[in-house]
UniProtKB/TrEMBL annotation:
Protein name listed in UniProt: Haloacid dehalogenase
SMART domains on file: TRASH (SM00746)
Origin superkingdom: Bacteria
Gene3D superfamilies: Ribonucleotide Reductase, subunit A
Species for this entry: Sulfurifustis variabilis
Cited Pfam families: YHS
UniProt GO MF annotations: oxidoreductase activity
Residue stretches making up the TRASH domain: 4-42
């Protein structure tokens, strides 16, 4: 299990919407907007203590 560094939710790597290699580590994302937000400012997300989805994030319904 990996953690989406943008929204801090757990992501199963095989099911991640996106993955990014940054500074030798691979990060997995629950959604494309999370990946885009991370790429726009990776250091902010790696250092930020709070969890929040970026604008445009749409949660998947549990039954999908
Ligand atoms: Zn996310």
């Amino acid at each position: 299990m990996a953690m989406d560094p943008v929204c801090r939710m757990n992501v199963v790597p095989e099911r991640a919407a996106a993955e990014v290699r940054y500074q030798g580590e691979v990060f997995y994302f629950c959604s494309i907007p999370c990946k885009d937000a991370f790429l726009a400012n990776p250091r902010m997300y790696l250092e930020r203590p709070i969890a929040e989805h970026p604008p445009g994030y749409t949660p998947r319904k549990p039954n999908e």
